Amino acid sequence: MARVDHECRTAQIGCVDDKKMLAEIMIEALRPIRERREAIDRDPSIVWDTLREGGRKARARAGATLAAVRDAMKIDFPELR
Predict the structure, then answer these.
(1) What is the C-alpha to C-alpha distance for residues 50 and 70, in angstroms, rounded to an integer?
(2) Whether residue 80 has pLDDT greater than 70
(3) Rg, the chain, Cα only
(4) CB–CB of 22/4 below 8 Å?
(5) How many whole angstroms separate alpha carbon 19 and alpha carbon 13?
(6) 3 state SS of 44
(7) Running DSSP on this structure, what letter comes out for residue 10?
(8) 8 burial class (0-12, 13-18, 19+ CB within 10 angstroms)?
(9) How many angstroms separate the CA atoms of 70 and 53, rounded?
(10) What gap in Å lies between CA 54 and CA 52, rounded to an integer?
């Protein structure tokens, strides 16, 4: 990046060359993200498993929060436990 910055600012390279170098850097930087997306495309169960696990964690957290609220407000609903 420093090389591109220097060469561009000193007019050693033109805008097209500058953009080509930037594109190459971006392609390489985004490679892991693209590879992960391709893995998910091949196996959609990754997304469903993640959603199920997130839902499980959210329910547990919400239950704990509601229990703390009921306790703080001195409200007892045995049917909600």
Answers:
(1) 30
(2) no
(3) 26
(4) yes
(5) 10
(6) coil
(7) T
(8) middle
(9) 26
(10) 5
Alpha-helix runs per DSSP H in the chain: 2-9, 15-42, 45-72
Q: In this structure, what are the phi and psi dihedrals at residue 74, rounded to the nearest 5 degrees?
A: 60, 40
The secondary structure of residue 13, as a DSSP letter, is S
In the prediction, which pLDDT does 76 show?
79
pLDDT at res. 10: 80
Close Cβ partners of 16 (under 8 Å, ≥ 6 residues apart): none
- Residues 49 and 44: their CA atoms lie apart, in Å, by 9
Instruction: Judge contact between 47 and 39, C-beta under 8 A.
Output: no
Q: What is the pLDDT of residues 6-60, one digit of tens each?
A: 777 787 777 788 788 889 999 999 999 999 999 999 999 999 999 999 999 999 9
Q: How far apart are CA 11 and CA 8, in angstroms?
A: 5
With beta carbons less than 8 A apart as the criterion, state whether 1 and 25 touch. yes
